[in-house]
Amino acid sequence: MDLYPEAVRPVERSEVWSFLESKIREVMHRYGYSEIRTPILEYTSLIARGVGQNTDIVSKEMFTLERGRHSYVLRPEMTAPIMRSYIQHHLHQKPGVQRYFYMGPCFRAERPQKGRYRQFHQFGAEIIGTDDPRADAEIMTLMSEIFELFGISNQRLRINTLGDSDARSRYRDALVNYLTPFKEKLSQTSQDRLSRNPLRILDTKIEAEQTILEHAPLISEYISKDSLDNYELVKGFLTAVNIPFIEDPMLVRGLDYYCHTAFELEVDGIGAQNALAGGGRYDLLAPEIGAKHPIGAVGFAAGMERLILALNDCEEDLPCGPFTFEIWVIAIGESAHAAAFHVATQLRRSRFRVGMELGNRSLKAQMRLANHHKARYTILLGDQEIINETAIVKDMNTSEEESVDLIHIVKRITELLSHVSTSS
Ligand code: AMP
User: pLDDT value at position 315?
Assistant: First the structure.
């Protein structure tokens, strides 16, 4: 998808993206998260081991490139790359737990549709270096606050606990035992998942399968007391800061690396792809990708395109219309080109937002552009002004004009605009 100025759909409008990105950065900084950026290309083996061979992402959605002896992948998500970076750069040696945020493109070979793209953008946050349940609650609080900030109040936070890997594997066996007699009644996708990744069947949207699952064993029956106590603490912290949540024992998430807390944030009204964000705890990712021991970590990832789709409803709050200028410089005739270019550059170097058309448009066309970009003042330069070394400064609100010596133009514009900002 191309993003460009003044696009009709907010999801394609570049101004909307920069506005949202700066708001997200603001919240991330307020919570004490620093930005981390990792390459778009990663080794395929990192993603395969980190995300899990049997996941949909690794088994069918990766864009891979073979080059020489190596296989690379366009990153399908950011958590495994960030943990790789944390291990590679010995970031555990830094004092305290590490809080990171990120935003950037990810790639999955999916069938594109509304809210689902081959190239999409994620933003998210990770806390690495602790298994403190406050970290889980903080990540969910931060995520909810970002969506709340944009006025998405119909968000639903669903949470669950997946226990440790022992509980998960015992539960996996129990689920397979329960579902095997129903195998013929399952869709082809679920039949495939039954051997590869049975927990994913719990995500099914097919009603007949949901009915079968009504009597399936629940993961909570397999979870140790310690894990359940931990889950209680997480819920308690969420409640203490007024973050509403719904407990969903069927929530498992599609990625292999989650343990203990798992969560998803949904919203109505954006079609089938109603998951805005998801995440969880992933202490076991680090040993999968080369660390000697588990590293306590929890994070969320959200889809930028889905956020914007969800915002369509409250579109008036989003930036729309053209980029605005304080000054628009107009050259009338080629003899004024050099002087106009000089004036525009001087003003830009003096920190003003200055627009200027290129080529040989008529005065009328250039004035139209100045209006389109809501310029407060225009500066006009024609043959006579070049001879006199002056320029005409026009107030676009009152249509008043004054002649200003070119050597004083920056000073005069500074005066005029400081008056505008103090009187407005
Ligand atoms: P996941 O890593 O699958 O948990 O995805 C996290 C979030 O990224 C989801 O909740 C979506 O908002 C977004 N997302 C995932 N895949 C896509 C896609 N193909 N197109 C657009 N957004 C996506």
Answer: 54
Give me the residues paired with residue 280 across strands.
262, 299
How many whole angstroms separate alpha carbon 142 and alpha carbon 152? 14
Distance, CA of 100 to CA of 301 (rounded, Å): 12
* Ligand 1: residue whose CA is nearest its atom 13: 303
Question: Which pTM value belongs to this model?
Answer: 0.90
pLDDT of residue 34: 97
Task: Give rounded-to-5 percent helix, strand, coil for the chain.
Answer: 45, 20, 30
| Nearest protein CA to atom 10 of ligand 1, as residue | 277
Q: In a mutational test of the pocket of ligand 1, which residue from 20, 116, 265 has the highest number of ligand atoms less than 8 Å from its CB?
A: 116
CB atoms near residue 106 (< 10 Å): 21
- Compute the distance from residue 15 Cα to the ligand 1 centre, in Å: 22
Strand partners, 159: 247, 263
Hunting for tokens 């550059």 — which residue is that? Answer: 345
Candidate of 306, 307, 308 to mutate for ligand 1, largest count of ligand atoms within 8 Å of Cβ? 306
CA distance 340 to 198: 68
Instruction: State in Å: Cα 210 to ligand 1 middle.
Output: 23
310 vs 150: CA distance, rounded Å: 10
The token duo for 350 is 């003096």
For residue range 251-307, what is the model confidence (pLDDT) as tens digits?
Answer: 887 667 788 999 999 988 777 778 999 999 999 899 999 899 999 999 999 999 999
Angle among Cα 392, 396, 401 to the nearest 5 degrees reads 30
Residue ranges in the chain whose pLDDT is less than 70: 254-255, 313-316, 421-424
Q: 208: closest CA among 190, 220, 234? A: 190
**For residue 10, which of 324, 322, 305 has the smallest C-alpha distance?**
305
Please state, as a whole number, how many other Cβ atoms lie within 10 Å of the Cβ of residue 170.
16
